[in-house]
Amino acid sequence: MELTWHGHSTWNVTVGDTTLLVDPFFDNPHTEFDPLDIESPEYLLLTHAHADHIADVGSFTDATVVTTPELAGYVEDEHGVTETIGMNIGGTVECDDAFVTMHRADHTNGAMTDYEHSMGEPTGFLISDAEPTPNSTDSATTFYHAGDTALMTEMRDVIGPYLSPDAAALPIGDHFTMGPWQAAIATEWLGVDHVFPMHYDTFPPIEIDVSKFETAVESSESDARTVVLDGDEMFSL
């Protein structure tokens, strides 16, 4: 599995011959890429409807969008998307070589930050090379994109012990999501081997010294390696 961070919460994930792009938003200071520079993915995964997560959906209309039914309908109407898979929290869908499991995130979800029009629950995704079952999670390789979220006990009680992610991308920018200290607790609860900070330094309210997160993880009970990627940098999991 190959993971490329394009800044903010935008990740390009390759599983076998399948490419999945999560939360396309290229107007951020950590990427030098334009959406047109990205080879069109087979699948586009959307965690929620805020503008800094779906702004560039219209550049990838050949992809199949995987998201909640409410947001699937919205991007069909507003962004010219024709192929969608509407799923909901707790479900798993097969996306060619990848299995995508949706989990909730603690956040808000107005369309393009218009809070008069809710897009259902905000979410995160677990992307795996095997279907999650009691017998497969130990041998599978699984990446958890937590979306925009606060610290939540489901990380400790469900996602970590039962879905067994090997790596997690966690928001650390504070203000709109959890900050470094709570993200370090999430790292501990999830039991991952690798953790990647995301959703920081994009706007003034979420500018942060990323070393605070590294220090918090080192001071926790977690054995995870904190991997701070440069924008557009790839990591092989």
From TrEMBL:
One MF annotation (Gene Ontology) recorded for this entry: hydrolase activity
Annotated keywords: Hydrolase
Gene3D superfamilies: Ribonuclease Z/Hydroxyacylglutathione hydrolase-like
InterPro entries: Metallo-B-lactamas, RibonucZ/Hydroxyglut_hydro, UPF0173, UPF0173_UPF0282_UlaG_hydrolase
Record has Membrane as a keyword: no
Domain (Metallo-beta-lactamase): residue spans on this chain: 7-199
Highest rank taxon of the organism: Archaea
Keyword Hydrolase (UniProt): yes
Similarity section: Belongs to the UPF0173 family.
Official protein name in the record: UPF0173 metal-dependent hydrolase MW046_02100
Species of origin: Halocatena salina
